[in-house]
C-alpha cells in the first residue's frame, strides 16, 4: 500500500483483499491524534474513494489503545501562534479535525472501527462515524473535554447522531467514561468481543458480509441513509425511487438477480 500514502508517518497500512487495514500507530502517546494524523487520515479516505479494489476501511489502534484524543503537543504549539477569528490557530486545528471526521462519516466505503483501551475525545468521535464498531474488553469511551475546560466542538454532532440527544447530553456535560458494555447499550458500538480472538472472528464475519454486498449499491445506500432527517421525506422518497429504478436496471442489479436465481455468489464477491 506504499503508493496509497507514500509519506505516512502516524499510520500503518495493509490491504487484506477488499479491506484496507488502517492502524493508528502512535502507541507511545496512546495514539493521540496529531494534526499530521488528521492530514494522513484525510489523504487515505480521499485516495480510497475511487479505488474499486477497496470495499471497506478498518481503523484500529496500535498498542492496545484506539485513540486517546487530541495531541497536547499540537495544542501547545498553537498557543505560540497568533491569529484572530478563523485565523486563530486553535480554530484551524479544531476545524481540520472536523473536516476529516466528516469525510470519514460520508465515505462511500464501509468503515469499521476496532476499539480497545482509550477511546476518548476525537477517538470517540471517530468511533461514532463508523458503520460498524467492535469493542474489545478493555475499551473505555469518553468525552472528557468539559473536565479540561474545553468543548467537544467537532465530535458533538456525530455523538448526537449516534446516541441521540438525551444520552449525548449526559456523556458530554458530565464528562463521563463508559465501558464496552455500556457503550453497546448506548449504540456507540455494535458488538463487544471477549478477547483478541473474538475480535478477529467478529471482524472476519463483518468483512465476509461486506464482500457479498455490491459496491455501488452499498455506496448509494449509505448516501441515502445520511439524507434521512435532513430533507423533505416526500422528495427524498422520490429520489430514492429513481435510484432504485436505476439500480434494478444496472449491471449490479442484473448480476445480483441472476446470482440469486442461479444460487451462487455474485461476481463482486470474489473481487
UniProtKB/TrEMBL annotation:
Its EC number is 4.2.1.17. It comes from Marinobacter litoralis. The gene is echA8_2. Belongs to the enoyl-CoA hydratase/isomerase family. GO terms for biological process: isoprenoid catabolic process. This is Putative enoyl-CoA hydratase echA8. The keyword Transcription regulation does not apply. It is an enzyme of class 4 (lyase). Keywords: Lyase.
Amino acid at each position: 500500500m506504499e503508493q496509497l500514502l507514500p509519506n505516512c508517518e502516524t499510520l500503518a497500512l495493509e490491504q487484506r483483499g477488499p479491506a484496507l487495514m488502517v492502524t493508528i500507530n502512535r502507541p507511545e502517546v496512546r495514539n493521540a491524534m496529531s494534526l499530521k494524523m488528521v492530514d494522513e487520515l484525510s489523504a487515505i479516505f480521499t485516495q480510497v474513494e475511487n479505488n474499486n479494489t477497496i470495499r471497506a476501511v478498518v481503523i484500529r489502534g496500535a498498542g492496545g489503545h484506539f485513540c486517546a484524543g487530541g495531541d497536547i503537543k499540537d495544542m501547545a504549539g498553537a498557543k505560540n501562534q497568533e491569529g484572530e477569528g478563523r485565523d486563530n490557530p486553535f480554530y484551524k486545528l479544531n476545524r481540520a479535525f472536523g473536516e476529516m471526521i466528516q469525510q470519514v462519516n460520508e465515505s462511500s466505503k464501509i468503515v469499521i472501527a476496532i476499539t480497545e483501551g482509550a477511546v476518548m475525545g476525537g477517538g470517540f468521535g471517530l468511533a461514532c462515524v463508523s458503520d460498524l464498531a467492535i469493542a474489545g474488553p478493555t475499551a473505555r469511551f469518553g468525552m472528557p473535554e468539559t473536565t479540561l475546560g474545553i468543548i467537544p466542538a467537532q465530535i458533538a454532532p456525530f455523538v448526537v447522531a449516534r446516541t441521540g440527544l438525551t444520552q449525548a447530553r449526559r456523556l458530554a456535560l458530565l464528562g463521563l467514561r463508559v465501558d464496552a458494555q455500556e457503550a453497546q447499550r448506548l449504540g456507540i458500538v455494535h458488538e463487544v468481543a471477549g478477547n483478541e480472538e473474538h475480535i478477529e472472528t467478529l471482524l472476519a464475519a463483518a468483512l465476509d458480509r461486506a464482500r457479498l454486498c455490491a459496491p455501488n449499491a452499498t455506496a448509494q445506500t449509505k448516501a441515502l441513509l445520511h439524507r434521512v432527517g435532513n430533507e423533505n421525506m416526500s422528495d427524498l422518497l422520490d429520489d430514492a425511487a429513481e435510484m432504485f429504478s436505476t439500480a434494478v436496471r444496472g449491471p449490479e442489479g442484473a448480476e445480483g438477480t441472476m446470482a440469486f436465481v442461479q444460487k451462487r455468489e455474485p461476481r463482486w464477491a470474489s473481487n
